[in-house]
Amino acid sequence: MFIDRLIESIKEKNNPTVVGLDPKLEYVPAFIREKAFKEYGVTLKGAAQAILQFNKQLLDAVHDQIPAVKPQLAYYEMYGTEGMIAFDETCKYAKSKGLLVIADGKRNDIGTTAEAYSKAFLGETVLENEIKEKAFDVDALTVSPYLGVDGIKPFIDDCARHQKGIFVLVKTSNKSSGQLQDLVTQDCRSIYEIMASYVNEWGKNVKGQYGYSSVGAVVGATYPNQAKLLRSIMKHAYILVPGYGAQGGTARDCVNSFNPDGLGAIVNASRSVMCAYTSESWKDQYSPEGFADAARAEVIRMKEDLNNALAQR
Amino acid sequence: MFIDRLIESIKEKNNPTVVGLDPKLEYVPAFIREKAFKEYGVTLKGAAQAILQFNKQLLDAVHDQIPAVKPQLAYYEMYGTEGMIAFDETCKYAKSKGLLVIADGKRNDIGTTAEAYSKAFLGETVLENEIKEKAFDVDALTVSPYLGVDGIKPFIDDCARHQKGIFVLVKTSNKSSGQLQDLVTQDCRSIYEIMASYVNEWGKNVKGQYGYSSVGAVVGATYPNQAKLLRSIMKHAYILVPGYGAQGGTARDCVNSFNPDGLGAIVNASRSVMCAYTSESWKDQYSPEGFADAARAEVIRMKEDLNNALAQR
């Protein structure tokens, strides 16, 4: 089960953190960008290769501290096919370092097309007769629930079949998330509560040995009160918590997504780790050449921050 | 304005149809598959190249009859980076034939990430100083509204800046679409009605000369009654109508998405066109080698079917 592998890695590293690999080109130190542009020209390929080098050095520095990484597909698609090659290479490199890879793609479509998306990221693509290949080989994928269960079920089937996971959007971290998600229906429940009930239901057949399901949920750190309620509705879902750090969520805000067993949530940080070398906290200690060491220092600081908040609640 | 270009092409070809390019490998005639596998091996590249050849021959046969094509990203992502190269080549080939390209990706994310998706498909990616490149150059993109306006606005900005369009999911064609979309809120409106009001509002600053907006909506042909209501709520939105043909929607079902001016909707058909050569209607007249001619015959039949239904209402 994906969820068992995730929990075991969180326990081993004593760190419920996932590092988001959303590498905007401006985050990449100039020396890496310049080298790549010199080698490949100021092209999409040059940019994609710069990002790949940045990711690899980050992964070298932090892989022993964290259980998982979360590359955000948009930041690779924006460099076209070269960007997708960099995404693929990033995933492979992360896996070679023992990390779980959660692709953040928020994919969603009707059933037959959701099947194709699921094959792309979680399952296998049949080429001819018995010959199959993996397109992008990741461990889990974020998915969006606007189309209801028949847009989700193909992913769940692959979770069972291939030991993979999904995280379904429930309450997202952005400001306007309430525009749809906070609407209240005639039975006095909000859309995010109803989605949470679905997630709980959808995940019941892919539970692992720790009682958690490989069907998880996304609940932003920026909505700690809603997180408390959602934690109680989705007893068995692992919660992926974006919004810590740069988006304003604190470790205390994140605590509401955890269960009393200290499990149940994994907190994402992207910019605060990738750009640690330019941050107020670390820029005096680390030069751009030391960006990966700064990222490591920030990952360790964040781990302690989260573990302290969990201990103090 | 994207929407003006779309309307002019629909008028010129007298055909409110978009052909979905969702090329499952099993749809591709054996002679094309075998040739590609012989050249590139039974690999993801071989499969992707088979699909690209299939698409190109289809486009050669139908481009003068239709205003637009809609490649579905899932069916390219499932062949990995090679699939994305085939997607890119398909889009370029379609544009070279004078077709508008609507990428069906149902992308969605928080604001900064939606910006990256928008750059990927509609805008431009900045590489260095003033140097910009287009990642995937399409005319319009489908987007999913679960995150509210700040996940949509970056796309709308690029619609204005780069003469592009979006189609926002409102009421999708699949069976379980009601699980979220039909929920009724305390002001007695369904989610799809509320989303339709948003779409109307979001599109008001990107209207073209025919009174329609470059912010359109997706409303499935399988829900004709809802389409009638949604047509009246979204006065200025062009409606992309999936679900005709293989999914069970008829031309009469589609009519409800059109305005009295005969405009306002574009109907998608994928499988019924791509697989025309295997269908009951056409398989006696066309061999697998004639798949593109069969697709053309089906496109012409569908055009007449829609135009008759529009004339008879």
Would you mind describing this structure in some detail?
Chains A, B: It catalyses: orotidine 5'-phosphate + H(+) = UMP + CO2. The structure is a homodimer of 313-residue chains. The first copy, chain A, has one domain (2-308): Aldolase class I (TIM Barrel, Alpha-Beta Barrel), CATH 3.20.20.70. Chain A has 13 helices and ten strands. Chain A has helices at 2-13, 30-40, 44-62, 74-77, 80-96, 111-121, 153-162, 178-181, 191-202, 224-233, 251-255, 271-274, 291-312; strands spanning 17-21, 68-71, 100-107, 125-128, 131-133, 140-143, 165-171, 213-219, 237-241, 265-269. The first copy, chain A, starts with a helix and ends with a helix.
What is the structure about, briefly put?
Chains A, B: InterPro entries: Aldolase_TIM, OMPdecase_AS, OMPdecase_type-2, OMPdeCOase_dom, RibuloseP-bd_barrel. 2 copies of one chain form a homodimer. Chain A has 313 residues and is of the alpha/beta class.
Distance between the termini of chain A: 30 Å
User: What order do the strands of the largest sheet of chain A run in, or round the barrel if closed?
Assistant: 1-2-3-6-7-8-9-10
What's the helix count of chain A?
A: 13
Q: What share of residues are in beta strands of chain A? A: 15-25%
- Taken from the alpha-carbon principal axes, the silhouette of chain A is globular
Largest sheet of chain A, in brief, is:
8 strands, parallel, barrel
Q: Give the class of chain A from helix and strand content and strand pairing.
A: alpha/beta
Summed up, the domain count of chain A is 1
- Bin the helical content of chain A: 40-55%
CATH topology of chain A: TIM Barrel
The quaternary state of the protein chains shown equals homodimer
| Poorly predicted spans of chain A | none
What pattern of helices and strands is seen along the backbone of chain A? HEHHEHHEHEEEHEHHEHEHEHH
